[in-house]
Amino acid sequence: MNYMDDFPMLNKDIVYFDNGATTLKPKSVIKAMDDYYLNYSSNAHRGDYKISLKVNDAYEGVREKVKKLINAKSSNEIVFTSGSTDSLNMIVYGYFKNKLNKDDEVLVTKSEHASNILPWYELSNEMGININYIPLTENHTVTLDNVIKSITPKTKVISIAHVTNVIGDVRPIKEIIEYAHKNNILVVIDGAQSVGHIKVDVQDMDIDFLAFSAHKMLGPTGVGVLYGKYDLLNELIPTRYGGGMNISFTSKDEIEYKELPYKLEAGTQNIAGVIGLGAAIDYINNVGINNIEETCDSLKEYIISGLKSIPHIKVYNENVEGSIVTFNVKDVFAQDTAIYLDKYNICVRSGSHCAKKLEDELGIKNTCRISIYFYNTKEDADKLINALKNENILEESLGV
Amino acid sequence: MDSNFKRALIIENYEKPLNKGLLNDSTYLRENKNNSSCIDNFDIELKMEDGKIKDIRFDGEACAIATSSMSISIGILIGKTKEEALNIIENYQNMLEEKPYDKDLIEDLNAYDDIYKQPARKKCATLGILGIKDLIEKSK
């Protein structure tokens, strides 16, 4: 495969290391979406005419692809959403709001993304559940031991990222879930940084709920997936009502909703986005998930060894597996470093990366994040490392 | 100002900013200013006395441009009357917007006369001083 040919953005004279924010898109994804808009644009689940049936097949075909990608038992367990944030909000407000009671406990960590903390905070304010934090190790990772220590008889749900977006650590979710289930605790997995990056098998890992976004795995923005085990998902009360999800409504007392997954997909969905997600899954399958993981891991090691040779660079997560390198330049504010790198057309992210509780753990609020995907190369890494060898980064970031 | 001088001035004010650290004194007006598009964040305190700016303090985390311009602004604005201060701030904003401005009036803030070339940095260069402006306007 020739990534330079497949990804137009790789020919823009930039080094793109902000894949944790969003990945680049291959032509095949853009083409699949274009094809829908140009050649068979119509609604799904409605029409009695040929192109509408074609849309339906394409849309439902992607549900099958998602099912295979994460090894769900049934495609009825796959709900299309607008992204991980939407999925997590549906899980919290559609399911747990109706299942939890005052003083029940939710376990999260301080390195979660805002989308896996704020819905819980709001639910806590609304109904008096308690939110506790699983302590992180000195490398900012989660261990089964620390999960076990955090569980109390009141713990009803653990809601954590599979891979975090600041540190990039891969959590031992299979072991955590196995232990949780023995204690009648449900587990919600934020898979935004893991699906399409490492192998995610919802049956093998026994995941109860999983949320992920298409745009972090080569797909378009504005579309994502909510997975839930059928019996759990079936008890998720819709958070939106409208067309496409009902069978009949004659009065407020006589309403009939569709079965899963349709009852959770109110209104016309992001059809082009779903079709784009399907093409993204095809591309990922062609590259191979093991190949993706190995490529990212080895490039991460290469970058870390390069950065470690530079005295004025501090790396915060060198002992963590994954595809993210978090660092700062001594005495330079993270944003100034990112602006400096931008002068060399190197794209990295600075800030708290939406994980605003993590500063309690890192002891620093803002960092620069290099997030890698399989199309990044050693040449990209060398450009980054060479740019960071400069001893006058602060001066040169000023632009005056 | 030549580039080397500008850089030295900015770095000096970034590394050793004037009046960093809040007093939490009830005779001061207080405001938080942050940039939604980036990560700069300041708390600012201001005290007026006899129609003049008696003191300005700040704290927070921000980039070199935001921190240094805050420090330089504080140095220039303390001791000025409300009208003088607002006039300086207006001239500084004019410079960043590429409009006519009085160079002599804004003293060391001339260090930022190239910032208009980096539109994303304009917010950094005005975060602190616009906070000060808010507080001056709030004061009676």
Question: What keywords describe this structure?
Answer:
A: 400 residues; alpha/beta; Aspartate Aminotransferase, domain 2; 7-stranded mixed sheet; 4-stranded antiparallel sheet; 15 helices; 39% helix; B: 140 residues; alpha+beta; Sufe protein. Chain: A; 4 helices; 3 strands
Structural domains of chain B: how many: 1
CATH fold group of chain B: Sufe protein. Chain: A
- Average pLDDT metric of chain B: 94
Number of domains of chain A: 2
Low-confidence segments of chain A:
none
Kindly describe this structure.
- The complex is a heterodimer of chains A (400) and B (140).
- With 400 residues, chain A is an alpha/beta fold.
- Chain A folds into two domains: 3-25 and 288-397, Alpha-Beta Complex (Aspartate Aminotransferase, domain 1), CATH 3.90.1150; 28-285, Aspartate Aminotransferase, domain 2 (3-Layer(aba) Sandwich), CATH 3.40.640.10.
- Helices cover 39% and strands 16% of the residues of chain A.
- Chain A contains 15 helices and 15 strands.
- Chain A has a seven-stranded mixed β-sheet with strand order 2-8-7-6-5-3-4, with helices on both faces.
- In chain A, helix 3 crosses helix 10 (271-287) and helix 11 packs parallel to helix 14.
- Chain A is globular, with a radius of gyration of 22 Å.
- In chain B, strands 1-2-3 form a three-stranded antiparallel β-sheet, with helices on one face.
- In chain B, a hairpin with a 6-residue loop joins strand 1 and strand 2.
- With 140 residues, chain B is of the alpha+beta class.
- The relative contact order of chain B is 0.21.
- Chain B has one domain (3-138): Sufe protein. Chain: A (Alpha-Beta Complex), CATH 3.90.1010.
- Chain B has four helices and three strands.
- Chain B starts with a helix and ends with a helix.
